[in-house]
Amino acid sequence: MDASNKHEDAGKTLEAQAKAFFDSAPPLHNSHKISQDLNHFIQHNSSSLENGEARRIVCVTSGGTTAPLEQRCVRYVDNFSSGHRGATSTEYFLKAGYAVIFLHRRGSFQPFCRSLPDDPLLECFEPTNDLNIQVREAYSEAVKRAYMNHHTAVEGCLLLKLPFSTIFEYLQMLQMIAISMRCVGPRAMFYLAAAVSDYYVPWKDMVEHKIQSGSHLLDVKLVQVPKMLSVLRKDWAPQAFCISFKLETDSSILLNKANAALDKYNMHAVVANELLTRKERVVVVTSAEKITVLRDNSESANDVEDPLIKLLSERHTAYIEDSSR
Amino acid sequence: MDASNKHEDAGKTLEAQAKAFFDSAPPLHNSHKISQDLNHFIQHNSSSLENGEARRIVCVTSGGTTAPLEQRCVRYVDNFSSGHRGATSTEYFLKAGYAVIFLHRRGSFQPFCRSLPDDPLLECFEPTNDLNIQVREAYSEAVKRAYMNHHTAVEGCLLLKLPFSTIFEYLQMLQMIAISMRCVGPRAMFYLAAAVSDYYVPWKDMVEHKIQSGSHLLDVKLVQVPKMLSVLRKDWAPQAFCISFKLETDSSILLNKANAALDKYNMHAVVANELLTRKERVVVVTSAEKITVLRDNSESANDVEDPLIKLLSERHTAYIEDSSR
């Protein structure tokens, strides 16, 4: 698992680094099925009308990617992310009239399921007198609403859910989605809330079997993942409206990092958020302004994603109008 | 995150290494509540009778532990483990008359829920004509059985579920459980199916904030986790019947590794299993014999854990009888 190609990579252009990443990645399972589902979803939604206009499509990425340390993966470096931001935002994008491709980490939070307990099956039911089970009164409305909203979105072809685990799966699927969405032009949005690995072990450098634990010290050398945000903006989906996220635990460097990301990746906006206050407050950083978005805390059920998605949807409208001039 | 104390640690006795690990670990949340629940569970079960004898208690560990790379944890090294082995084994231990302490990774497989789809809430229901929802016919028996079995075990004080995520939480809880179970003597069993991190970054060596991703290469140095199986056997629960697991992807080294673990940690048995065939076949390695246990594949619903737990339960009976002589 030594990163023997480190010096080689550092001098390469970004395009060459991206190509090397994809060439060496393990092939994506089910890529034919994913491609079919994607094309059907995009065709259906780009030809259907919402208030007399073609529907907008957003790709929401959600949850963390893993970087395997072994080919037959036992150990991996993971990024903490519950997927709460992506799942919640998906609900508000649907409410705002978008069709949503929800590219999410397997097992992370799902849209419409946030108000349910961790283990809904075991906690939402109770036994009845006739040896049967029923949904508990306290959860009955929440379970019904979760099921109905989810069912309506999926059956109505407004929500397409695609799961990933590794950084290899995530980037291969993001590329497929971006290229499939080119036909949507500026009506496409990327809302990149996933916590994507910064470092990985290239597949060909990886040991095949489980790392043996004989020695007192384990030294893991990882190389930087090519900065695919730039490639997405420049090559994969140059017309799409692109939002990325910057999460830090240290507030003193957050806005500078967000500004740097805006410039470096040429994003339309970067949503800056801090780990401890991320459900209360985010700052939307664009080249022209910094807008603080706060959760309306008059009711505990309110989400910061409600005003955030309203703001981004308005900016997207302006962007579409600008593009057509 | 440099492991500056590596040379220091290598020369220490195991007891000193274990002490250093616990002294430097972040304090366990809810330790008072966990301790209360544990004591109540153990008292209740050690005084209740099963066929005229005090009930046996097994601690089943399940799922993988994480080793955080940052104190405010964004990145961590994780061990792949669905928790399927531990969840399934728990069902068979309950069937065999044991009370089970299920020490499991948060979000891993739960006992009695294996036959349900991944996302039971969204997949098990269907809308009714009167704008309500009901359990789908195809899942109705499975949902009812899952709920009822789980409910009966928890309400009957036969199943205590304790969740962990990090290696720090896991080892602190395992120590609490082992010490609380001393009073049960040889009627206690440890069935250690969790995939426990071999390496970690000591808490005090860890950076507080998120690692910055400026440089091309990330070099993560981890030190070996003290071999707590030895400490469990020798100090925490010297009278308990102890089973550990050895999972490898390389079959050529599996049995040697299992034998080595048996000797090194003084286990009563080691269950050897290979990643690709782990649901079909395991080998129980004791100092006297190697017993291959196969899934009865006459029915697809059969589990290899069924004959495995029967065998271990018999061996445990013999161990209890030997201990009382």
From TrEMBL, chains A, B:
Gene Ontology MF annotations: phosphopantothenate--cysteine ligase activity
PANTHER family (alphabetical): CORNICHON-RELATED
Record-annotated DNA/pantothenate metabolism flavoprotein C-terminal domain positions: 175-299
Superkingdom in the source lineage: Eukaryota
Organismal lineage: Eukaryota, Viridiplantae, Streptophyta, Embryophyta, Tracheophyta
Protein name as annotated: DNA/pantothenate metabolism flavoprotein C-terminal domain-containing protein
Biological processes, Gene Ontology terms: coenzyme A biosynthetic process
Pathway: Cofactor biosynthesis; coenzyme A biosynthesis; CoA from (R)-pantothenate: step 2/5
Record family assignment: Belongs to the PPC synthetase family.
The entry's keywords: Coenzyme A biosynthesis
Stretches that traverse the bilayer: none
Keyword rRNA processing among UniProt keywords: no
Alphabetized Pfam families for the sequence: DFP (PF04127)
